[in-house]
Design a protein that fits this description.
Layout: E1 11-16, H1 36-44, E2 50-55, E3 76-79, E4 82-85, E5 111-115, H2 138-144, E6 149-155, H3 157-170, E7 174-183, H4 190-201, E8 204-206
Parallel strand pairs: 1-2, 1-6, 2-5, 6-7, 7-8
Antiparallel strand pairs: 3-4
This protein binds zinc ion.
The site of zinc ion has 6 residues, from loops.
Length: 212
């Protein structure tokens, strides 16, 4: 029998980066990324508290291959905070690619957190930029609202969802991943690594129908 997770006052759904550039036809499309939209809309109806996040880069962001002469997407470079994968230009502030997927319909979401806004720092996690110290403000928001259990859904499972889960655990929050509401990029074994990480940090991975 499948166990149900009962929702309460301290629960929040964080919808990670469901944006056009990460969906079919976008510049950094996650395979089958569009498929999460309907499932997330349904799941969000069960939550009183919902936060949406948006990857939101300035032009010529350091994470874009086009910013670096002679580099191509998925090359890696060394940056002060470690190794940076170079991506196709994506989610440039104010462009249609950075907008939420047209069918995403969560009008009761109370906050939108934008990340990756600093030209020199990428941001996978919705809590901290990739230097691990620059906050997005989301932790402060959750603390002030007394939200202590985080449910994650969105794109991509093996990058922004994964790093958000790790940061949330480190901040002492409980983490549940609605796995059927996520899709992965799966580059260089990143999906297997993400799954191993969820197990290691004690993040629960569940089917969204068990959340009620
Ligand atoms: Zn990005």
């Amino acid at each position: 029998m499948t166990q149900t997770i009962s929702l309460g006052d301290g629960d929040v759904l964080i919808v990670v980066d469901v944006q056009n550039d990460f969906c079919q036809g976008g510049s950094l499309a996650v395979p089958r990324g569009d498929e999460v939209v309907a499932a997330i809309n349904e799941l969000a109806k069960r939550f009183e508290n919902v936060v949406l996040t948006q990857d939101w880069h300035p032009r010529e962001h350091q994470s874009f291959a086009s910013t670096h002469r002679g580099r191509k997407p998925f090359d890696t470079i060394a940056v002060p905070y470690g190794t940076q994968i170079l991506w196709p230009d994506h989610c440039v502030q104010g462009t249609p690619g950075a907008a939420f997927h047209w069918d995403l319909n969560i009008s009761h979401a109370a906050a939108i957190v934008r990340k990756g806004i600093h030209p020199q720092i990428d941001s996978y996690s919705t809590f901290y930029e990739n230097d691990r110290v620059t906050p997005t403000g989301l932790i402060g928001y959750l603390r002030e609202r007394k939200l202590t259990r985080v449910f994650l859904a969105g794109l991509a499972l093996d990058f922004c969802v994964r790093y958000s889960a790790e940061d949330a655990c480190r901040e002492g929050l409980s983490v549940v991943i609605a796995e059927d509401c996520c899709r992965a990029i799966d580059v260089n074994g990143s999906l297997a690594e993400a799954r191993a990480s969820f197990a290691a940090i004690g993040a629960l991975s569940v089917a969204s129908r068990t959340i009620a």
